[in-house]
Amino acid sequence: MVETKVKEKPKTKSEKPSSLDFSKIRLYLFPIVVVIVAFIGYKIRAATGQTKYFIDPDTFYHFEIYKLAIKEWIPKYYPLADAPFGSLIGEPLGLYIIPALLYKLLSAFGFEVIKVFKMWPPLVGFFSIVGVYLLGRKLHSEWAGLWAALVMMFSVAHWTRTFSGNARGDGPFLMFFIYAVLFMFYYLEATEVKRKSLFGALFVLFGVLMLSVWNGSPFGLMVLLGFASLYVIVSFIFGKVEDVKKFAMEFYPVYVAVLFIGYALTPSGIVRVGGHIKFAFEVFLGLALLTTIMLYGGRYLNYSDKTHRFGVVAVIVLLGFAGAYLYVGPKLFSLMSGAYQSTQVYETVQELAKTEWNDIQRYYSVKGTDGIIFLLSLVGIAIVAFRFLKALNQNKVDAKNLFLLVFYGLSVYLMWTAVRFLFLASGAVLLTFGILVGELFKIVENMQEKVSTKALYAFLLVLLFIPIPIVGANTTYNSAKVSGEAVSPSWEETLKWLRENTNEYDTATSWWDYGYWIESSLLGNRRASADGGHARDRDYIIARFLANDGSKSEVDFESWQLNYFIAWIQDWAKFNAISYLGGAITRDERDHRGMILPFTQKIGDNAFYSPYGIQLQIVEQGGQKKAIIVAGNQQGEPVQTIIMQTGEVINGKGDFPYAAYVFPNYAVAVYYKVAASNFLKLAFGIPISSEADFAQKLLSNFRLVKNTGDLATYEFVPFGVYRIEVYKNDTWMPVSKLIPGEYKAKLYISAFGRDVKDATIKLRAYNGDKLISEQIIAQNVNIDHLNETPVEVSLKVPNATKYQLVLVQKGPVGALTEAPKLNGRLVSPIRVLNDGQSGELELRAGFRKDYSNLELYLRATVIYLIRTEGENRDDPKAAFEPHMDIIHYEKIASGLSTSNRELYFKGQASFPEVIQPYIEKLKNEYGNKVEIRGIRVEPVFIADKEYIIYEG
Description:
There is one protein chain. By secondary structure, this protein is an alpha+beta fold. It is 42% helix and 24% strand. The protein has a six-stranded antiparallel β-sheet. The chain has a five-stranded mixed β-sheet with strand order 4-3-5-17-16. Strands 6-15-14-12-13 form a five-stranded mixed β-sheet, with no helix packed on it. A hairpin with a 2-residue loop joins strand 10 (624-631) and strand 11 (634-636). Helix 1 packs antiparallel against helix 4, helix 8 packs across helix 10 and helix 9 (218-237) packs antiparallel against helix 10. It is globular and about 115 Å long.
């Protein structure tokens, strides 16, 4: 391209320089300003660290693994999850090793473990702000970097993963990615060998660090690979063969070094994305092949003009995509879409919900929900695109603007797939916002005006934009300051009671949201059956229990060795999700019906108001009471209204398909499909059931041991006596408790989700704590939990202060204390062997007491869903019923004994092919209506186990 020179007007001595040169001022002023801005950003993020615990529930888990990293450096196993088995740590260990290193450094200055942990996320925010300034300066200008830093200081989108009390991996990932990109461009531009080597090494280091802190880090690999691919392709099409060769020689080796080092760290667990790294390397090989063809294929292909070069690239890329599709399958187009909507559980997780415009407005606002930062970033990326196209028009390939286009495009794409990625997009969005403002300042600087005039324009620009960081910082800081404790006083009281009054091997569960609280060493320090990151197959089973009633709600909690169940009245707000996952309602009902409508304000004696503007009124018409629900201009009658204090029942037309329960100071209306659910029985104390005696049975299995008013803790026993009858005067009479004497009795035993098999029942009598008598009153007892019949016994009850009925049968005991090994390698505690697999199994377990005749089995369980309504899984009218089938016990060893309540086992184990045949059987029976949600092969110790079925 030929350039035409313009004849310049010679300057006179009286003329002043026509440019506003801030270079010397910027050299010192801008970095100082940015450090101040980053410090303010740190303070905004640290404001939430004043809470006693952590705001984000997942952070309780991350704190425990961070403590393990301080102790072990490379921890492998977390014993408190997925009780009683524990779990291999699935997160990349770099997420914990890095703050553990920080603690080792700061502990010398007296910093405590939890203090450093709370400091770490705000420090990530601090260094991210500095990094985005440096990157913005590199990609555009000082002004762009400064304004990107200013908005990152307060941005809710960035704050949401870098505030104190949130220790997830995407915050550190974005920080390391920003620095990796910064050093990449310094490396590509450097000409001096030492400088190039330094920046190349830093790029590799930070590239590996980004892989070590987050399982979503392949996003960074894809951005870098996407940028590299487009750069060499566009450069080739525009005839820049030497640029292609130079870029390939420089970028490819360091990118491969990131992949190789990252992959080498996967066996240790420091990096966990080995599969993605392998995929990235395979894509890279395709790019390398394409680059080779572009550089050396001119001997055989027509490279004469842009059209022919484009055609060659298009054909090769299409062939590459076709090959990748054949290799990967349909998942090729969803590799970076996260977990969004992939299972019914994930459908109910808010941060995995599909992003709506309201979410963007909230996350990228200056104050409230204006969304102005995102809207201005669209202008910024449009400027970047214009500059890139303008450079192309001049036969130049602008690498910096191309990178921004790739980074912004992939970030926004991912952001729209799920709410959780609104943070990830903050790097690109805030950079392009900064570029918009930086472009305006560059326009002013390049004006052919007097210095004073340009200074005035610059000052006006500052006045125009400076309210954004001032208002934004103030808004976010005030919001952060009022962030309350996530753990309510009732939860704190309950969990500390659990820690102080239960055995170290006891397990507890609630809805899965609170599993990390149960496990936390700061709170319950007990094993949990389910939590936010483990045992997600069990979520369906817990939901089935909570959302249903009668025998349909019975599940084998004893197979989990569950000891305590915690029911929180506030979970009414989550009961739509619980009811859906439990199979009680359809997806459409979940989305358009409130399962529980609370009426928290009482007006007079007969009216209750809901915060949602709904009223419940009890009126008299024609001498009869009626209950009326009023919602706006509509009103209807519940199916049934029960006055809980008196037991009075008011039947209604049911044109409002709810049952209403009226308490002295509040009322609740419950959707008819879940109006007798176990959640209502345990959380609200509503003893309503569709099956005779079921509420009474339930409370014999779930015995209230702690109640704070809104939080009820129940001790779970799989077998419980709910009714006793004695034979007197030729008839069976119910009695409330055992009395001294000789007589026949019927024991009505509730077997919750588990059969009684070949059991023995004993009667124990105590004076105080002293056992004075023990007698066997029944042997070879068998009860079908779905068809229970009473057990008739003859009793000789001595005089005593306390009696116990104890059922003895074989049951699971013990908890794993280390990760199991198969042939010397760690394996998942819940999938130790597969069908037809064998090897040397190594286990360590702890027990509540010593046993002398333990048997070790491998127990196979399949958790699955059956679609009971709807045409397909995505049908709004679809409903899914959860099932948990224990399909096989394989004996591994017998005659095992414990020592000091511990056991170490090492021996051969094999497992038959039973799982896949069972799944095929389900598919043959249910077709596409069945979905497998969990396959477990767990090591279970079986012994004679005592269950206290009655005490009084």
